[in-house]
Amino acid sequence: MNIAIIGTGYVGLVTGACFAQAGFNVTCLDKDLHKIALLRQGRMPFHEPGLEALIAEGQASGRLSFQSTLEPDLSLERAEAIFLAVGTPTGPDGRAALADLLECAGLLARTLTHGAVIVIKSTVPVGTCEQVRSTLETQSPFIPPPRFTVASNPEFLAEGRAIEDFRHPGRIVIGCDDAQACRVLRTLYAPFDPDGSRTLVMDVRSAEFAKYACNAALAARISMINELACIAGQLAVDMRAVCKVLTSDPRIGRHYLKPGAGYGGSCLPKDLRALIAMAQDHGEPAYLLHSVETVNTGQCERLLDTLRACMAYDFKGRCVALWGLTFKADTDDMREAPSLALAHGLLEAGARVQAYDPVAGQSAQALLADPMFEPCADAYRACEGADVLVVMTDWEEFRRADFARVAERLSLSLVFDCRQIYEAASLARHGLRHLEIGQRPPAAASRPFIDALQSAV
């Protein structure tokens, strides 16, 4: 079967590479000529573990190719299924911006002389598939226009493990009102769900909504555990112990229940805002969704307040070391990363920031163009001359850190562990104080605090 995929971001490239490995002929298209040139050379436009090798395998087999939508090509005409995997970023009003998606629909309408299954892989508001179908029908110059079927097939890929998620999906959602189109999609996904038990077929509008529902639920769990951790800190409660109780309850489960710096990335923030906008458009107040967003937005200010207390409420002349800048490990994605919000807050308050990230240091320098911000070549260089260390991303190399070297470099001997990857006792052996989300900060700027730390070792 021949497949075309428009859009070469995380979703489009992972989808194309995995389908090609499964034996389908795949052409990935994009209007970004620079990106297409990179991909043809076997170079990746972003970091995703395992994807470069998988794309190289697909190109070597001849089943995966890259084409610009601006270049003459027959791949769209040959395709039996065309996936749209273009971005739907947040607009100024919080709604998903659909201009690029509808532009693709117009391109298909003017190009295709035969019928095809058009599959919306992008996360889109309910009713978008109907808009795409209307565009295909009204903008086609051919009489009669080809028969198009538009299906919704939302993605559930987590950055950093996207290939694994595609190959071994927890669920495959197909929103389709046409039996033949549904058969085409079942055929495509059969290598990844041989017995069909994980394939959920429903109407188009329900499939469109399903992705928003999942991301809203995940965002709510993250905000809930962060709020509980902050309450627990005021009550001198051990939140790690409480989390063990929560995760042992089968009704609650164990995922997304670790207090942290808040959610970020390309999906949860924008999808929650888009869902709130949909609710408002239909007269629903969405009180809980607003609260989820409020808690997450306020999480950075909580981190900043904790650091203010550690610095005796004066950042002037202080330096903070940041480990990790991407919103999560195993990706170079810094979209809406909590680290950026924290760094901006520190810089505005007069602190210097020295940061290290395994893959995103140079990107951060472009996003944080401030003479008081310094991206560092390694983790220990970021700690040189710093007062405290804040761990914002749980990269594997941070779990194996040499804290004897860290202790030599930090003047206030304090590690703010925003990802719960360390044990207080392990750090204490090196004279370091361990601080987690929600815990009351020590008066780190005072001499008695420093003396107490040294005598406790």
UniProtKB/TrEMBL annotation:
Residues reported to bind substrate: 156-159, 211, 256-260, 264, 328
Keyword DNA-binding: no
SUPFAM superfamilies: 6-phosphogluconate dehydrogenase C-terminal domain-like, NAD(P)-binding Rossmann-fold domains, UDP-glucose/GDP-mannose dehydrogenase C-terminal domain
GO biological process: polysaccharide biosynthetic process
Enzyme Commission number(s): 1.1.1.22
Family: Belongs to the UDP-glucose/GDP-mannose dehydrogenase family.
Identification of the protein by name: UDP-glucose 6-dehydrogenase
Lineage: Bacteria, Pseudomonadati, Pseudomonadota, Betaproteobacteria, Burkholderiales
